TrEMBL record:
GO terms for molecular function: heme binding; molybdenum ion binding; molybdopterin cofactor binding; sulfite oxidase activity. This is Sulfite dehydrogenase (Cytochrome) subunit SorA apoprotein. InterPro entries: Ig_E-set, MoCF_OxRdtse_dimer, Mopterin_OxRdtase_euk, OxRdtase_Mopterin-bd_dom, OxRdtase_Mopterin-bd_sf, TAT_signal. The chain crosses the membrane at residues 21-40. Residues 293-408 form the Moybdenum cofactor oxidoreductase dimerisation domain. Residues 93-265 form the Oxidoreductase molybdopterin-binding domain. It comes from the Bacteria. Coiled coil: none annotated. GO terms for biological process: sulfur compound metabolic process. Its cofactor is Mo-molybdopterin. Keywords: Membrane, Metal-binding, Molybdenum, Oxidoreductase, Transmembrane, Transmembrane helix.
């Protein structure tokens, strides 16, 4: 990332670049062992955030203020539908000055019968308006735990959210434009500015294979939880492509181009949003031609209660969410004894295709003391989250178990 100067965390102290599991736990912070430096850092960045960079957001931790990147602590993601003020923010560039819906136009062009220019009112009037709960996760969520570290925003757990998005299906709009036989890929364009200030450069322009674009739950969205989009989350118009790296979900959407070859926009090429096509040892320098673009995200889960570092009784509820890219989650398990035994949690079906699934279970511990709660999900193809990180150079796709530490006091 040093190359394009976009999201290199060079200005962050080492303590924030990479912290071990205990280093990021509340318990670690409370007991002042590993986390104190990080704790002070968090406090000051949060205070800074309240000064303006995160207006309209609540409780998020700012990882970078240029561009603005902020994640949500796991315990603040407890709601089934993520409130707007708790939805993480991942920007590659500068938010457009004008994010009002008035006068906003979307161009649909490239290999179509009828190129279109649509206002947001046109979208509402000409297409079926749908509302869906859709999970959005950054491809780099969990990067902070990579060893050796990977450059980029040091997300721990909170670059995931599931809000309710209202908009029109991308498929309906593309069908109205008339997709040529030869189309294999989309190209997405947004109105955000490049950090360099050069108007010719785009901070991000991603695309997806046409089959993914034509999926029922890929939306061009103009509302989030029944309100206009938050400016940091792409107001007034964005794509929501659930199950794939968040980068596919172009914010401040101005144009969708249909192409007869893979898109060549900013951050389409390796190593962006790409992983090696074969397993590599941690720290390997992988040649660019050996990377492949990430498609669906892997199965993953999050514990949203209890909060990491909490005091609990001998019996307490553990709950959270689980999601699995283009698949669903079929099983959710929890351990309170470092994986010696697992108990199955009660797991809800997704409210619609592309939503995360809520789960809960009651954990009973045998005596007072320190416990770690581990969670693991298994997807509809029988693939389970791994215990450990499958290392890759850019720090993507960390779907290893989420763990929270608690101190139990038996009555
Ligand atoms: N135009 C534009 N769209 C964008 C981005 C961006 O920088 N510019 N970031 C992408 C990335 S990497 C992610 S993870 C998601 C994050 O969406 P959010 O900020 O609403 O959480 O937006 C995507 N869409
Ligand atoms: Mo992302």
């Amino acid at each position: 990332m040093a190359k394009d100067g976009i999201d290199t965390p060079e200005d962050l102290p080492q303590s924030m670049k990479r912290r071990s599991f205990l280093g990021v736990t509340g318990l670690g912070l409370a007991s002042g062992i590993l986390g104190l430096g990080a704790s002070l850092q968090m406090t000051s960045t949060r205070a800074l955030a309240q000064g303006g960079a995160l207006e309209g957001k609540d409780g998020l931790d700012l990882l970078n203020d240029r561009p603005v990147n902020a994640q949500t602590p796991a315990h603040l993601l407890d709601d089934a539908i993520t409130p707007i003020d708790r939805h993480f923010v991942r920007n590659n560039g500068v938010v457009p000055d004008d994010t009002s819906a008035e006068g906003w136009m979307l161009t649909v062009d490239g290999l179509v019968d009828q190129p279109m220019e649509l206002s947001i009112d046109d979208l509402r009037d000409q297409f079926e308006v749908v509302t869906m709960a859709l999970a959005l996760e950054c491809g780099g969520n969990g990067r902070a735990m990579f060893d050796p570290p990977a450059s980029g925003n040091q997300w721990t757990y909170g670059a995931i959210a599931c809000s309710e998005w209202t908009g029109v299906r991308l498929r309906d709009v593309l069908e109205a434009a008339g997709v040529h036989e030869s189309v294999v890929y989309t190209g997405h364009y947004g109105a955000d500015g490049h950090l360099s200030g050069d108007p010719e450069r785009s901070p991000l322009s991603r695309g997806v294979p046409i089959d993914k674009a034509m999926t029922d739950n890929v939306l061009i969205a103009f509302e989030m939880n029944g309100e206009p989009l938050h400016p940091l989350n792409g107001a007034p118009l964005r794509l929501v492509v659930p199950g794939w790296p968040g980068s596919c979900s172009q914010k401040w959407l101005t144009r969708i181009e249909l192409r007869d070859q893979k898109h060549d926009g900013t951050k389409m090429a390796a190593p962006s949003y790409s992983v090696p096509s074969y397993p590599v040892a941690p720290g390997t320098d992988v040649p660019l031609e050996d990377f492949e673009t990430i498609h669906a995200m892997p199965v993953k889960s999050l514990i949203t209660h209890p909060q990491d570092g909490a005091d609990v009784g001998s019996e307490f509820e553990v709950r959270g969410h689980a999601w699995a890219g283009d698949r669903t989650v079929q099983k959710m398990e929890v351990s309170s004894d470092h994986g010696e035994s697992w108990q199955e949690a009660d797991l809800d079906d997704p409210v619609n295709d592309g939503a995360w699934q809520n789960w809960r279970t009651t954990v009973t511990v045998p005596q007072s003391g320190y416990y770690e709660i581990w969670a693991r999900a298994t997807d509809s193809e029988g693939v389970m989250q791994p215990f450990a990180i499958k290392w890759n150079p850019k720090g993507y796709l960390n779907n290893s178990f989420h763990k929270v530490a608690v101190q139990a006091e038996a009555a």
